[in-house]
Amino acid sequence: MKKAERLIKRTLPAMAGAAAAALFLAGCGGASVNQTAAAAGASGTPCGTVNVAMNAWVGYTADAAVYSYVAKNKLGCTVVQKDLNEQVSWQGFASGEVDVIMENWGHADLTKQYITDQKVAVDAGPTGNEGHIGWYVPPWMAEKYPDITDGKNLNKYASLFTTSESGGKGQVLDGDPAFVTNDEALVKNLNLDYKVVFAGSEAALIQSFRTAQQNKTPLLGYFYEPQWFLSEVPLKKVNLPAWTEGCDSNPETVACDYPTYKLNKVISKKLDDSGSAAAKLAKGFTWTNEDQNSVATDIQGGMTPEAAAKKWVDAHQSAVDKWLS
Amino acid sequence: MSALVQERPTAQPAAVIVSEPRRRPSRRTILLLSAAAVWILGFLVLNGTATLALPASELTDLHRSLNQFNAWVGANRADNPLFLYVFTPLRSAVDAVANLFTTTFAATATGLRLPEIGWLGTVGLLTWIALAVGNLRVALLTAAVFVFFGIQGLFVEATYTFALVLTSVLLTLLLGIPLGILAGIYTRVAKVITPVLDFMQTLPTFVYLAPLALVFLIGPASAVIATVIYAAPPVIRLTAHGIRRIPDNTREASDSLGTTGLQRLLTLQLPMARRTIVMGINQGTMAALSMVTIAALIAAPGLGQTVIRALQSLDVGTAVNAGLSIVLLAIVLDRVTTAASRRAEPGAARSRRLGRRTRNIILGVALAVVLAMVQLSRTMLWAAAFPADLNVGPQIVQAVNAASHWLQSNLSLFTVSLREGVTGAILNPFQSLLTDTPFYILVMVFAIVAYALGGWKLAALTTACLAVIIFLGLWSDSMVTLAGTLVATAVVMVLGIVFGVAMGRSDRVDQLMRPLLDAGQTMPSFVYLVPFLGLFGATRFTAIIAGIIYAAPVAIKITADGISGISPTVVESAVASGSTPWQVITKVQLPMARQSLALAANQGLIYVLAMVVVGALVGAGGLGYDVVAGFVQSSIFGKGLAAGLAIVFLGIMMDRMTQAAAAAPARSIPSKTTA
């Protein structure tokens, strides 16, 4: 009994404190600066919260930064950015964690799963960018070995590309394992004497290509447009067997080059139904590869994404107004 | 990995230790040598046949059927009763709790996204809690660290992480303490639960992220559930251990007074086990922090997201800044819970300087001040959001980036040649020794080694584990992973012996090293990857380094404890008989600490294996890559799942083999010829 008494005595102050704190918070719950300040700042129709998925390549960051900047500063939305992998982002439509994907590369399977079947997401139209994925070599190699840009000759040059990671074969350097890629299957199905090695990220891929061009070392790697880096080092594309409709439908047997991607935006059904201005902005958003590259170059040059977005928006007021009208 | 608190069968001390007279090689040695001979012969003669290599883009039927599971969940989420009545409500409930804490401390979803309690209130409140459960010193530490988060420009991220850790720890305790009590009281429960806990602790953190995200969708709820799974084992184990440790005669004394089971639990077992339970809370909290960081991959907000972004853009400065926050948060959580466990020690009350009354008055006054701070932080903007002009985060990031660029450009010749040298001279040959030998030869080799170390039972277990790996269709990838793991473990053991001996022999070295090792252990694995990625690029070498850093502190500590545990009289008599320090180390100390060394190897291996998947984020191939790729590419989801299981079976096999090696040789093989 004495023990219980002591226990009560000891926890009593803490409990009293917690109770006091609870009462205290309840008493002035309405007066929070969070709501009042926000209410004073917002004008017009409320926009609410938009969750923007942030995929890990600079082109995407550019799209998302401009979208977020406009949504936040012109529409008064609360923008929440979430760093997520490409395919994982789609799961967010189902869970409510993600409202907007700003640059989607194909993904027919996910489109079917989340837009057609589960009906939790909606296609918000093209971004205006055209995407190309392929295998590239640094320009010095294309000059020295002119026939290297024909995929049929790759086996001839395989020995040039061996590294300590490629197990005696030529190395194909890929980016993030999360990116859209058929490279493992291509190597096998085109009978190439190569091995796919992952650099891990866009930044690492760019770093490798830059060093390869500077030091004139051989490198064959996965790359894509639109991409700001191509204006710094104009990589040369290696042509694999041309893409035809349906040649890449089975990821295990694919033996053709990548298609041209009409990049599009995807938004959640929830956001679309809410009639929020953020949904309208997402649907209206469209720009060119040069626009994206200019913002991406600024971000790469050390500007924060927000500052780079502001710079672009200030210079392209009329385009932005058209998205919103 | 909290394998630290696993209860291992304590190995019998070896009967004969020093200077066994040389005689003909034991049966074990003969077996091991013949295994090596079979392996080398098999490698040379049958090189490249029956390697069971599966190209990365190819799947087996098993993987395809696991892929189907993915589609099935998507299609049945809305109407399957399992989802309708179990998973979805569970998700909402966990989400609600997580939401409560994140809106209180980090950010709300509306308005200016300010939290319910602004930064000033948060700092005040947490400091008060640290004072109430700990002491003044940890309270000041808490205040300083949380203000520093603001100065780093990471206050919101840090409080998100903190809020998720808090949620996870509360749910872990809700689940873990009752289970621990049951396991402590009923031996039968303990018997059922222990293998489950073993399995949970061998499972690399990453492996269950994909299936969890599949079932519970991405977001804080899945993150918290993953964290609870990771943090519960140490809490359950230590609670059970605390209760079981109570001496029998104490229990009998209480029983003779006629107490009922419940009375005994409340008045005897729980109070006496309190300190061990709080230690479990400490371990659980540290585990939770490291998991919450990784859970950023399934959309858990907080510092982990900052680290991942830095990892993807090779931004060493940002990674170091965020990593510093994580380490500081780890230190605060560790110190506060440790102080709380000290306070929970029986008899601690008597030695306190302040009387209870004085203490209560101080706490009361402090609480009033804190409440005023909370109120301020709800009404004043400067106290709600951390002032932006105090933020020196960008400067920290820039300075670190400048330093890292300098290092990278000046060290690149050294780092590249080191990497190429080690990869070419050690890693590649060893890897091909494993991957190019036919699988049946290797199974035979492993079985012979297992028999030599632990008899028929172990040989059967090893063969079964390998059979499962073959069934999973991932033999070749498993061998790649095994090669990297063994190389890393070998380096860990060298480090363990060198530093462990130095620490065991000199108290001063011990005092110098211990804080470093503690820091190495509390730092979540994710954090130190970025600088090494910058130095060595995304390669298997980098992944091996990451594994070494993660595992070395444990191995060093265990070795040091083994060396310093040797009776000083033995060492002194060796010195007196004219041995040089080198002779003392090699002839007396290392042989006598043999069991500690084997335990260090065991723990080192398990820790390295735990890093295999994280290592795949920086270039390791094999199973780790399969898991990571399966997580991010839905077309190979099934393969990733299978790879996760393969890691577990590889782990169980290596764990049992090293454990057997740690046990006394006389016990392992009953043989007539030797002994």
UniProtKB/TrEMBL annotation, chain A:
Keywords: Signal. The lineage of its organism: Bacteria, Bacillati, Actinomycetota, Actinomycetes, Micrococcales. Residues 49-314 form the ABC-type glycine betaine transport system substrate-binding domain. PROSITE patterns: PROKAR_LIPOPROTEIN (PS51257). It comes from the Bacteria. InterPro entries: ABC_Gly_betaine_transp_sub-bd. Residues 1-31 form the signal peptide. This is Glycine betaine/proline transport system substrate-binding protein. It comes from Pseudarthrobacter enclensis.
Automatic annotation (TrEMBL), chain B:
The chain crosses the membrane at residues 30-54, 125-149, 161-186, 206-232, 284-304, 316-333, 361-385, 458-476, 482-504, 525-551, 605-625, 631-652. Keywords: Cell membrane, Membrane, Transmembrane, Transmembrane helix, Transport. It is found in: Cell membrane; Membrane. Residues 158-337, 478-658 form the ABC transmembrane type-1 domain. It is a multi-pass membrane protein. Belongs to the binding-protein-dependent transport system permease family. This is Glycine betaine/proline transport system permease protein.
